[in-house]
């Protein structure tokens, strides 16, 4: 018996846009740009750390539904199948956000894309002046006020310029900065 072959290879995520950083109390807008090809849209679902918080299903009335999750407040009036808006993000809004698009029968294809957002609180930061070293490098220090007994997540990003040696002296290049290299310290527990 031959089964019909349905090509749904055209369903794909074109771009998922999640802001890398937001300040507590700000709005956050996520975008999920997709192409259905010959398929019809069944649903678009958004997850934070694998927990669904928003879905758009065009066959339902209304097509939008938001689930209650700590730190996630969806603004339904500004959200649709390609955009989700969160208002008044909190520190608990930080996480990995994933958009999942699914097609109707007969293909039931799905595609997903994701991005990470971290929420910061300016009241916890103590900024210190930049230090210009004689060899040309800049050093920056940032202090954090953390209440005793609280857990904190820290991300450290360093930008470096090319460096080489000329004889016994290190030379720092004045060209554009190279891509950022990121390292993350997952958690520090203060007791």
From TrEMBL:
<dbReference type="InterPro" id="IPR013783">
    <property type="entry name" value="Ig-like_fold"/>
</dbReference>
<feature type="domain" description="Ig-like">
    <location>
        <begin position="4"/>
        <end position="120"/>
    </location>
</feature>
<dbReference type="InterPro" id="IPR003599">
    <property type="entry name" value="Ig_sub"/>
</dbReference>
<dbReference type="InterPro" id="IPR007110">
    <property type="entry name" value="Ig-like_dom"/>
</dbReference>
<protein>
    <recommendedName>
        <fullName>Ig-like domain-containing protein</fullName>
    </recommendedName>
</protein>
<dbReference type="InterPro" id="IPR036179">
    <property type="entry name" value="Ig-like_dom_sf"/>
</dbReference>
<dbReference type="Pfam" id="PF07686">
    <property type="entry name" value="V-set"/>
</dbReference>
<dbReference type="InterPro" id="IPR013106">
    <property type="entry name" value="Ig_V-set"/>
</dbReference>
